[in-house]
Design brief:
The complex is a heterodimer.
Chain A lengths: L3 E4 L2 E4 L5 E7 L6 E7 L6 E7 L5 E2 L8 E7 L2 E6 L8 E9 L3 E4 L3 E5 L1
Parallel strand pairs in A: 2-11
Antiparallel strand pairs in A: 1-3, 3-8, 4-5, 4-9, 5-6, 7-8, 9-10, 9-11
Chain B lengths: L3 E3 L4 E4 L4 E7 L6 E7 L6 E6 L3 E5 L2 E6 L4 E6 L8 E8 L7 E2 L3 E6 L1
Parallel strand pairs in B: 2-11
Antiparallel strand pairs in B: 1-3, 3-8, 4-5, 4-9, 6-7, 7-8, 9-10, 9-11
Classes of the chains: A mainly beta, B mainly beta.
Chain lengths: 114, 111
Amino acid sequence: GAVVSQHPSWVICKSGTSVKIECRSLDFQATTMFWYRQFPKQSLMLMATSNEGSKATYEQGVEKDKFLINHASLTLSTLTVTSAHPEDSSFYICSDTKQGWEQYFGPGTRLTVT
Amino acid sequence: QKEVEQNSGPLSVPEGAIASLNCTYSDRGSQSFFWYRQYSGKSPELIMSIYSNGDKEDGRFTAQLNKASQYVSLLIRDSQPSDSATYLCAVMGSGNTPLVFGKGTRLSVIA
């Protein structure tokens, strides 16, 4: 399957600060990547679809000004959580698509906001 | 609203038995179906994909799809304790659209 990396794997930040999470497609060029969030003991929640060279498409209820997504190259998408608060603490996972069908997930980034 | 339903479990099976995981979906236009395995604290790992009616086998895993009944299942033969995880059913419409996930079924294989 496809290889996706994320950095950092975990991060602790103070309330009010911003955190950037990187998602890289290592073995092919991904024009589309997806960002998910998962709270403990819950399923994955799609946050946004990241499109290379254009604006991201956000799911209903996800604040685009708070969760900034940039997909500047075919292999890199970034998610910036701005002015993070404790309720933003979660497991953030990106995925890319191979041949437009199968989605492969990165290892995830665990964010803790204190 | 596109929905994917799974029994949350936990489903407990003895080691060596067959584990059967089920999933139903609401969007009749769905074209691609996937099973992911997620260990606690880890991200989901794709284990099976199926696109047409019938069975697809890969090692100890068999995915079954019935589009008329809007039903997809995953069978795990000779279950091992290492198979203990949450199994997520995911469904995609056409093209490069986001997956819709079920809430997952927690499987526990008892040694």
